[in-house]
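Something for you to look into today, if you have time. Could you write out one complete protein record for me, on any chain you like? The space below this message is yours for that.
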Amino acid sequence: MRSFEFCLPTKGTSVPDCPDWLHEIKYDGYRLRLERDGDRVRLITRGGYNWSSRYPWIVEAARKVRQKQFVLDGEAVVLGVDGISDFNALHSRKHDYEVQFCAFDILAEGGDDFRMLPLSMRKASLEHLLARRPEGVFVNPFERGELGPDLFRAACNMGLEGLASKRRDRPYQAGRCKYWVKVKSRSHPGARAVSRAAGPLCTNAGPQRPIGPLRLGAEAGPSAINQIRLLRSTIRGRRTAATPSN
């Protein structure tokens, strides 16, 4: 399999409002690259470590995908019952069996390198790859264009970390990229400095998979993560209410 490097977002202070941009909810988790080649599945961190033994649910889900060779970019997250990511639960290592993969890009599939394709085409390919929605891996939904600033304000009001905005016509670029902009809510705990080492800080094997609040949220993940659609409906409802009637 080819060698891949992460595209890194640029920190921004405002969300773009142009039609050429796509907007995604920024989940609070660990950045990972999910690589499958036959039966081998690897979860690669920004530091180059393989965390496949740490998050078995993601590995199990990746093996259920029909395509046997692909590379995805995304975030390892723990979701609560409200569908909001809980970084403290993730960082604690007490819920490793609850961690799932939020996929937001596809870099390769079936031996084809997708990195030079525009983001809009990669998004379509990602949706097709994960159309069966295996539990443990989900596609991060997105919104297009001018709705970005309103979407960000609504996300902040819901207690979410913020938004990631990306140019829909750009290829996947290794390293720091000005066409990927990350804007965080100042009121979110994730905006404060948190140590997120990309190395193996903890070595415990993790607990048995429990049936509890976090597990419930994880099972509800594929539906609960559609917060962006709820935000869109909320914004459009406000705009309709603000429009004077004749």
About this structure: Helices lie at 56-64, 87-92, 119-129, 148-157, 213-219, 221-224, 227-242. The domain at 7-188+212-242 is CATH 3.30.470.30 (D-amino Acid Aminotransferase; Chain A, domain 1). Residues 227-242 form the longest helix (16 residues).
